[in-house]
Structures are given as C-alpha cells and as structure tokens.
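ok trying again, last paste got cut off:
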Amino acid sequence: MGCRIKLVCCLLLSLAWTSLAFSQETYFVTLVKGEIKRGDAVKIKVGDKLVTREKVIFSRKDGRLILLHPQKGRFIIEPLNVQPEPSGEYLVYLRDNFLPNQQTVKLSTRGDADLDEYFTINPSISKNLLFIGDSRISLDNAKYRISDPSNDFFFLQYSPASGKPSSKRLMVQQDSLQLNRSDFLFNGTPPSDSEEVRIGFLQNYSTDKKVTKISSFFPVFMSIEDCKVILRTIKEILGNDEEKVIDEAMTQLYYQYGKPDKHTLVSIYRSL
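nice, full thing came through this time. structure:
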C-alpha cells in the first residue's frame, strides 16, 4: 500500500512539474499591433519575452501579438473571441489563445530587385508596399532608359477622394531611382491609408508625353531603427542563419505591414 501511495505521489509530482515547465516556456514578441499591456499594465514592445501562463490586455479588438519560439515557431495572439471588460479592454490568457501560424513568402533568389519586381505586390498577402528608410532601386532595365532628365523621368501620382490629382517628380542618381518619405507628401500631407499611389515613367515630356504606368500601391513606412529591433529579436531566437532570419522577417513584415524589399532587409541585417 505504501509503495502505491509513493508511486501515485511521484506521478502527480511529475505531472505538476511538466505542467509548470510548460507554463513557463518563453516566447519572444516580434510584432505588436495596437496598444497591448501585460497584466501588470506594463506596455508590451517588440523584443519582450512572455511566458505561457501570462495574461495580456488589448486596448482594441483588432490588436495583435506575434510571438516566436525557437523550436515551436510563430504564434498569433488576438482577442477575436474575447468579450470586452467593463473598461473596454480585452483580457487574454496566452495559454488559451495560441494560434499556430504557418504563413510563408517565397523569396526571390536574385540580387537587387529591378524596378518592375520592386513594385510588384501580391494582393492576396497585402496591397501595401513597405518602405524602410530611404530606398534605392536599380534601373538596369533598359525599358526605363533616361536620355534627358528634363524630358524622361519617374513620377508619383496621388488622387485624393476629394481634390485634384497631384504628381511629384522623382530623383535618379547613379542609375538608381531614389525614394524617401518626403516624396510621398502631396501638398504637404501624406496620402490617406485607404487610397493608392501610382508610380509611372514619362518619356518625351516636351513633345508627345509617353507615359508608362509601372504600378499602383498603398505606401507604408517603417524606420530603419524599428526594423533593426525586429531583426535583432528574430536573430536572437533563430541564431546567426541569415537566410532563416530574413525569411522570417520578410514573412512577418509582408503579411502585417506590406511588401518589404529583400535587399534592404539584408543590408540592415548585416549592419546589426
């Protein structure tokens, strides 16, 4: 009888230890959408570590956390099926809301993207184009040859819901198209989140004005420093395998913000 009691006690202790160990698994925060706090009201940011037993508080129904585990992969935490608290916030226990996420993005094996590739987006993933810091896009494609900068140039065009279309000429230096955030200010203001920007190429401005439309997209912006925080966090989890880190960063950024430029991500990663 005594042996049986000891065996039962050992089994219970083993189960308790396993449960405790699981509840203390650590997950890294790689994306935060909206204002999200820990149970102690401390704001959660990219790079933080959360354990399974924690609770988090979302300020909005459409808030989102993406967590990454070295062995288990990527998880999304959202308050989709949670009723609001009297405060209007949404209380979520991590252990009950782990949604495994297997999204991937097929990466190009080429080097720098040419202009057409750069502005090609997959609407089934996101209609946004993500600009991280200043952008330089190669113009090796002869289709966009500039013979006379005053007559041949790239331009952005924005047509607000109310008002006249605005256009802005873009700068080309050393066979590369230059883009920065100020290029997306039209009459001093950025475009609305719900309205597209078009990029085109105009030849023979002084005569027949031949226009080639390259693409339409919704621009989204991220600072280089914010991108570095994401890359550092993913690198800490996945190790020094550049391809894996860039693949994970590309996937998260594309689905959550907009299509990033792979070459830009690689360049920032190598500067860490």
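cool. The first helix runs from residue 2 to 23. The CA atoms of residues 37 and 44 lie 5 Å apart.
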